């Protein structure tokens, strides 16, 4: 009999249950856009009462956003590892995502980074470290974890931050990005961001429902980050930007009706940068 675990999470950390639940339910569909059998297994290990809050946020918009963003992040990693098979990937704010298992090429060195209570939960319901798989417990805004990954400084680096930066202030995001630029030249960064309008709409919903966490940062244009670096110093170069809601997914036609409105069509984006 599977042992039931009750997550002891609050605030932003608690939102990881929402994305986990959405991935698990999507994976169960015969026409699933992402297959994540580990997510299904993890949900079965968690206390059902702890998942009740997720049901209030699994509307069509939230569900489609999580599914399409997850698919884009997986594609970005797979493309990167096709170019750099011996790379190091650092997954910032990993939550209970099992992306390493979905994209592992047998050579990548992988670090999952999150707050200590989240990493403790990962160890309970997913497991510990492996030969090429490592766990980092701490805040991404503190530089203590840099030394753990910098031992691989001669290898290419990819940093991922899915559903993370929007919970920070602009000053916090800028400080982190410039720190990565200085310490990991040549690295690539992939993260998602809400537009300022979508950030506002999300916060209105949180106020109305009392569920979820407030967002503090929105990004209007991907080129904005290129202006963060000092002239003459290392630069930040935008490589790609993908708006998940621009894709035509027949099964989700009803949920994707928002594509008819330009400000909704570009409300969420996955950005890809390189530190030059």
TrEMBL record:
Alphabetized SUPFAM superfamilies for the sequence: S-adenosyl-L-methionine-dependent methyltransferases (SSF53335)
Any Gene Ontology biological process: methylation
GO MF annotation list: methyltransferase activity
Keyword set includes Methyltransferase: yes
Top-rank taxon: Bacteria
Keywords recorded for this protein, A-Z: Methyltransferase, Transferase
PANTHER family, per the entry: S-ADENOSYL-L-METHIONINE-DEPENDENT METHYLTRANSFERASE YKTD-RELATED, S-ADENOSYL-L-METHIONINE-DEPENDENT METHYLTRANSFERASES SUPERFAMILY PROTEIN
Full protein name: O-Methyltransferase
Protein species of origin: Longilinea arvoryzae
């Amino acid at each position: 009999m599977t042992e039931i675990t009750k997550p002891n999470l609050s605030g932003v950390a608690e939102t990881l249950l929402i994305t986990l639940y959405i991935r698990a339910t999507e994976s169960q569909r015969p026409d699933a856009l992402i297959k994540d059998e580990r997510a299904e297994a993890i949900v079965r290990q968690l206390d059902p009462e702890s998942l009740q809050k997720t049901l209030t946020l699994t509307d069509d918009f939230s569900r489609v956003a999580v599914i399409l963003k997850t698919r884009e992040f997986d594609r970005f990693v797979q493309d990167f590892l096709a170019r750099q098979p011996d790379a190091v990937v650092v997954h910032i704010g990993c939550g209970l995502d099992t992306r390493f298992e979905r994209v592992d090429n047998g050579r990548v060195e992988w670090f999952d980074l999150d707050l200590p209570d989240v990493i403790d939960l990962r160890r309970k319901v997913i497991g510990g470290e492996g030969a090429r798989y490592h766990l980092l417990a701490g805040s991404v805004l503190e530089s203590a974890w840099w030394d753990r990954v910098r031992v691989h400084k001669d290898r290419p680096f990819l940093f991922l931050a899915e559903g993370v930066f929007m919970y920070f202030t602009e000053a916090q995001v800028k400080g982190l990005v410039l720190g990565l630029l200085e310490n990991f030249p040549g690295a690539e960064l992939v993260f998602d961001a809400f537009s300022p309008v979508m950030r506002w709409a999300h916060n209105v919903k949180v106020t109305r429902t009392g569920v979820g966490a407030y967002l503090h940062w929105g990004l209007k244009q991907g080129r904005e980050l290129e202006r963060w670096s000092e002239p003459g110093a290392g630069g930040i170069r935008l490589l790609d930007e993908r708006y998940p809601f621009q894709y035509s997914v027949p099964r989700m036609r009803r949920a994707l009706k928002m594509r008819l409105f330009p400000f909704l069509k570009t409300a969420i984006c996955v950005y890809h940068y390189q530190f030059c």
